[in-house]
Amino acid sequence: MKAVVIAPGERDSDRLVELPDPVPAEGELLVEVLSVGVDGTDDELVAGEYGEAPAGEEHLVIGHESLGRVREPAGGLSAGQLVAAIVRRPDPVPCLNCAHDEWDYCLNGRYTERGIKGRHGFLAEYYTERPEYVVAVPDELASVGMVVEPTTIGEKALEQVETIQRRLTWRPQRALVTGAGPIGLLAAALLALRDLEVVVYDKAESGPKLDLVGELGARYVQADSLPLGHDLAGEVGPIDIAIEATGFSPLGFGLLDTIGPNGVAVLTGVSGGGRRSELPVDHLNLEAVLHNKVLVGTVNADRANFEAAVRDLAAVQERWPGWLDRMITRRVPLERYSEALSRGPQDVKVVVDVAAS
Ligand code: BGC
Ligand code: ZN
């Protein structure tokens, strides 16, 4: 089969290669890959900044946002069923959380991630997997099911918000999303689906992001027009939930100021750099203390988050028909996968159509 591999740690080592077709072990599924979404983590992998090959191997098959079709059934999933694969696998020890299927809360960092860390990914024509690590996707999501994985980031963020806010009586009305990339837009859709008033804050001055935000009935705020903090809250009203999806860390910490009393801000951006920044820490500390504010980080997702993502995407598809398809601004065949690795200002989600090739 054809697959895209990298040599982890080496810059621009990506190439399309021929690998033996995988053979499912007893109880495993064989899945034909239909399409794979590309994101910032893939850019880091290709830049040699992140990633790990499986033990004893030199190359890693990349790709972690997958949609595929079952070819050889197992575990109650029939042939022909669309599936999205879970990314992370528990560490071998396992730690307390991995032992409870909470691999996204792994304590020792020895978890693996398909297409990222120690396990081959899905940017290939086939993969094999145990049925408990895939979720069924309905046929209505056939053109967009590869966004299940990025949607799970928002699902876990909202799950954390709900859990944390059980501390008080809470009727959230307004949510802020910083960053209108795929993670931010999908999170905005999840919030709009919950009938919150949604504000999306991003640098883009024109292009598809603004339209996509508008179609959700959400409000778009161009970053240069209004600084975050009290200015934004003064303009739009108190913010109950903020989801940070830019990875720009000064902005993330500043959300402690932006959110309203009893609010929660969730950081989702992986900031790999070494940036230093001067922040009004006494003020932020005071805001957090006097107004019971919470700043929480989140990474990855568990099986329940994947199942919630499938349900919510089906609801998004029904409520805003075509919105998810419009979020996918470019699709390239497997042979031209490298074009998906460079994305421009007009791109939101870029997808490699593996089966079309
Ligand atoms: C993936 C997560 C993963 C993280 C860190 C992200 O791109 O969506 O599932 O945990 O990278 O490797
Ligand atoms: Zn663990």
What does this structure look like?
With 357 residues, the protein is an alpha/beta fold. It has two domains: 2-137 and 324-353, Medium-chain alcohol dehydrogenases, catalytic domain (Quinone Oxidoreductase, Chain A, domain 1), CATH 3.90.180; 152-297, Rossmann fold (3-Layer(aba) Sandwich). 27% of the residues lie in helices and 24% in strands. The strands form four sheets. Strands 3, 5, 6, 10, 11, 18 and 19 form a seven-stranded mixed sheet that branches. A six-stranded parallel sheet has the order 14-13-12-15-16-17, sandwiched between helices. Strands 2-1-4 form a three-stranded antiparallel sheet, with no helix packed on it. α2 crosses α8 (303-319). The N and C termini lie close together (12 Å). The structure holds beta-D-glucopyranose and zinc ion. Beta-D-glucopyranose (BGC) is lined by residues 39, 41, 64, 87-88, 113, 116, 149, 153, 270, 299-300.
